[in-house]
Amino acid sequence: MDEYRQKIPYGRKFDLVAITVNTPNSGHCYRMAERFQALGAKVVMGGPHATLLPEEVSKHCDIIVIGEAEATWPQLLEGFYAGEVQEEYRSEDIPGLANLPLPRWDLLKRNPLMKGAVISMRGCLPG
Known about the structure:
Blueprint: E1 16-20, H1 26-38, E2 42-46, H2 48-52, H3 54-58, E3 63-66, H4 72-82, E4 88-90
């Protein structure tokens, strides 16, 4: 869901909710997580803020994803469906982006003029 274009369906039942947490919106994300947890959902948090401050973010979710999630997200989903989910998934690797699937833009209610973000680089360079 794109919260800028769609209303968050707090009234629906979900087994698993994943939230990307950026530092400026972390408080809002924590409140969202609390609402979904109260409805019985397991909440996953990842993103830049989760990677930078995992101890803080982990207090507000059931599962945390630290680092880039290309390898860990499929592991998390497999574990969740098998009933063997971990509390933390961590990736230290910088993933190759060459074979990433195209985003499913059709799943979002988007303005036809909106093309999405352009990412020129991800993460921090070792140094």
